[in-house]
Amino acid sequence: MSLAAGCAVKVDLVRVVYPAMEELRRELSPLGLEIAEREDADVAPGDPSDIELERLILSLGREADLRAKGLGRARAAVLIQVYQMNAGEPKKFASMISPAYRSLLRVARPLRVAKGHSIITPFREDEFLLADLLPEGKGDYLVAINNDTMHVIDPTGDLLDPRQVSGALLNSMNDLFVIGVHRGLAVAPVINARDESVKEGLLKNAASLASSVEARLLDVEMPKEGRLLMGGTVVGYTDRSPPQFKDKVEVSMKLIATRPFGELAPITTYLVSALDESVVDELEAEGLSFEALERAKEEAVRLISTPNKAAAEVIERHLPELGEPFDPTEHIPLTTDVTGQGAYSVRELADLAKVEITLYDFPLLFPEVSEFAARHFIMPNATSGTNGGFLILAPDGVADDIIKELRSRGYSPSVIGEVTGKGRPAVKATPRLANYIFDESLLSALGLRDGGL
C-alpha cells in the first residue's frame, strides 16, 4: 500500500521525467524550445524592479489557440498535472506535453523551460499545463524562478490549517533559498479547491505566508477546473553567483547536511495507520505507539511549514559576488535541497559534478518510523521530504565555519560525507541507508547493491 503526501505526489523523475525531457529536447529544440538541465532554480540576468509574469493555463494532449501578447524571448516555470495513466512511461508523458509546448512557442520564442514540476492526478479531466512566463531582460542582478505545487501537505489535517499552504509555498521557495537567493521575493500562487470558501481561505493563508517572509504576492490567474492544489511560482534576485559550479567540485570537499531529513515518513505512515488498524498493531508490536507517531507527524508538519531563509543567508555569505572569480578554497560550488527524492539527492550532486561521493551518514528525523515505512512497503523511499534540509558541498577549510553559522541560526548541521573521486559519478553510501529504502533502482544508484561502503 502506498499513499502520497507532499512531494511524494511527483511524477517519477528517474524513470519518466528525465527520459521524457530528452525526447522533448530532440523534438522541439529545432523550433526554439530549450529545456534546462536539472537545477534547483533557474537564474538569468534581470532587473528585480521590473518582474512581470504572464500566466497561461493549457490542456494536455492537444494544441491551444493562444491569444496572449507576443513576449519574444522568455523563460518559464512550468507546472504539469498529468493523469496517472499518462505518467508511467516516458514516451506517453512526452506526447501529452508536446502540444502544450508547441502552443507556448507561438507566444514566446525562443522559450526556455527554466524549471518544470510534474505531479500526478487520479482524474483524467484535471490534466493541465500551467506556465508562468518571464520575459528575458537585462540588469545588474540575477533573477531566479521556480515552481513547486502539490495537492496537500498533511492529508489528515485541516485544509485551512495555515501550515498546509505555508509548507507548499515554502517548498517552492526552498529551491531559491538553497542557492542563496532570498531578496526581493515575489510569489505567484497556484491555489485551487472545489469549495470556493476553502479556495478563498487557502489564498488568504498564502497572503499571510508571503507577508511573513517579506514577499510580494502577485495577482495571477488560478486554475478554474479540478481539485485541491497548493503551491506556486516564486521569483527572487541576488547579486551573487549561485552555487552551480559543478566543474569546481574537488576531492576532499565536505558534504554538509543543514539538518536531518525524512519529513514525509511520519505523515505517510500516520495516514496509512488511520486507514488500516492492522498497521497500528504492527507499529505497537515493534515498540512504536500510535501516539508517538502522531507527535512525530506534528513535528514533521511544523518543520515543513518553517522557512529555510536563514540557511539561504549563510549560503549567500560563501558565494562569489557577480563578476568575482570562484575561489575553490572559500566558495560553495554546489548545493541542493532534499525533498521528494530523499537520499537520491546525493546521487544527483554526484551526477552533476561527475564525482564520487562517499556518504558516511544520511541523518533522518524519525529513523524508526522511516525504517518501519520502508520495511512494510508503505514508502519505497522513506528518506523523502518536503521543504527539506539542504546538502552543501563545501571546501574543507570553510566547512567548519558554515556549520558554526548554521548552528547559530538554529539548525543542527553535520558533515555526512565527502568527495572521494573525480571523473565518474558514483555514491558509496553507508549500508544503514538500505534500511529506509526498498526501491531497487535507488539502492543501486546509491551503491547499496554493491555492498555500500
Task: Please describe what this structure looks like.
The protein is an alpha+beta fold and 453 residues long. The chain has two domains: 233 residues, PurM-like, N-terminal domain (60s Ribosomal Protein L30, Chain: A), CATH 3.30.1330; 200 residues, PurM-like C-terminal domain (Phosphoribosyl-aminoimidazole Synthetase, Chain A, domain 2), CATH 3.90.650.10. It is built from twelve helices and 16 strands. The strands form three sheets. A six-stranded mixed beta sheet has the order 12-14-11-15-13-16. The chain has a five-stranded mixed beta sheet with strand order 1-5-4-6-3, covered by helices on one side. A five-stranded mixed beta sheet has the order 2-7-10-8-9. Strand 8, helix 4 and strand 9 form a beta-alpha-beta unit. The longest helix has 17 residues. The chain is globular. The model has no long low-confidence stretch (mean pLDDT 92).
